[in-house]
């Protein structure tokens, strides 16, 4: 069985067909990239898979369950990195990490995760005092502290400088190596090529190409 199986997924906002019939099969342990330009339907698709947005139609299975009816137990197996996390700006990095860790039954050590994302020196700072790139790393840290089986990353490195991006890629490769299934959206071809085993290219709510990133990259 697959970690994620999607057939005929659609979602329309008033006047906009954001997702127009998408099929996906994502294997356990894969790093799967959904690559496409702004407005292609990446966030909408991922939000539906995360259980944060209702679909109009289609069959969707995520870790064996329907994300349209999320349970607490199911949520605890999934890690989510949203595009903009505005949680608790007054908490310090260490405080918010410890808080999140208590929500999950098999959490990672918060200090270890802070180290993983390169925020050890900022661990005592309030989230609102951090730069954009540092906040993004907090987002990622919050997504992985629960030791999820399946991790969603929506545009994880938008706004990163090249050095931070490389470090982030190393972090993701490490999580993948440990067996975490990862679904990421990106508009950077290089990010998909570097990280993913499989890539689906999305445009105007449809998958227009899918396969091995090296093959797709050669043609883009
Ligand atoms: P991407 O993540 O690839 O940028 P989105 O899924 O955010 O794409 O958006 C797909 C389309 O749906 C775009 O045309 C966008 O403007 C529209 N859209 C997204 N969210 C909403 C919303 N909440 N209400 C109305 N239209 C939306
Ligand atoms: P939801 O209540 O489903 O979470 P959002 O918080 O995404 O919706 O959006 C709140 C409002 O902003 C909605 O009225 C939506 O139509 C609008 N909106 C959000 N994102 C977009 C977008 N990308 N394009 C057009 N409208 C949007």
From TrEMBL:
GO BP annotations of the record are: response to antibiotic
GO MF assignments: ATP binding; ATP hydrolysis activity
Report how it sits in the membrane. Peripheral membrane protein
Main subcellular localisation: membrane
Question: What Gene Ontology cellular-component terms does the record carry?
Answer: plasma membrane
Residues in a coiled coil are none
Domain ABC transporter stretches = 4-220
Q: Keyword set for this entry?
A: Antibiotic resistance, ATP-binding, Cell membrane, Membrane, Nucleotide-binding, Translocase, Transport
Which domain of life does this protein belong to?
Answer: Bacteria
| Subcellular localization | Cell membrane
Family from the record: Belongs to the ABC transporter superfamily.
- Name-wise, this protein is ABC transporter
Organism of origin: Planotetraspora phitsanulokensis
Traced from the root, the source organism's taxonomic lineage reads: Bacteria, Bacillati, Actinomycetota, Actinomycetes, Streptosporangiales
Full-sequence portion shown in this chain: 2 to 221 of 275
